Every structure is written in C-alpha cells, then in structure tokens.
Amino acid sequence: MSAKLVTVRLLFADDGAFHHEEVVIPDESMAGYDRLIDCLMEDPDVLKRLHVDVTRVCSAELANESATPKNSSPSKTS
Questions:
Q1: Domain span at residue 45?
Q2: What's the total number of domains in the chain?
Q3: pLDDT tens for each residue of 3-57
Q4: What 3-state DSSP class applies to 14?
Q5: Phi, psi of 36 (to 5 degrees)
C-alpha cells in the first residue's frame, strides 16, 4: 500500500514578483516536525522527491482541505 500524500502550496518571491507552486509530499513526513518548512528542508523522504530553494520561499501551507497540521488544535466556535 502506498503512503498517503498531501499537497503543499509554496509561495515564492522572485525579483519582486510572487508565484506559487504546489508540491506533493508524504503525510507521514510531517509527523516529526513542528514547522512545515523544516520538513521541506530536512526530511529524507521529502528531499528525495524535491528541492526547495528556501531562500525564496515566503510561505508554505497545506493545500488539502482534509489535511490538518499535526501540531494544530481544532478551532472552537461559539
């Protein structure tokens, strides 16, 4: 069985212009990191899949609606 994949949306800045890219990484790779950017820079399985020039990254966020960060708590509504 293959691992569950999640989509990450990266926002880059290039000479004053901004653009985004979406990449796919294994869901289980995020488990060992508090910050998504650390996962992108350090996780061996992620590094096998892609290279991210983190000097140009402005933000990184999960793009899947069903996926939630491992270190977040559910929001409370009144």
A1: 5-62
A2: 1
A3: 799 999 999 998 889 999 999 999 999 988 999 999 999 999 999 999 999 899 9
A4: strand
A5: -60, -40
Three-state secondary structure call for residue 63 = coil
- Cα gap 56→59, rounded to integer Å: 9
Residue type at position 29: S
Establish if 41 belongs to a structural domain.
Answer: yes
**46 in any annotated domain:** yes
**CA–CA separation, 74 and 19 (whole Å):** 30
36 vs 39: CA distance, rounded Å: 5
Query: Which residues, at least 6 apart from 78, have a Cβ–Cβ distance to it below 8 Å?
Result: none
Burial environment of residue 74 by CB neighbours within 10 A (0 to 12, 13 to 18, 19 or more): exposed
CA-to-CA distance for 4 and 54, rounded, in angstroms? 24
Neighbour count for residue 32 (Cβ, 10 Å): 11
Is position 12 within any domain? Answer: yes
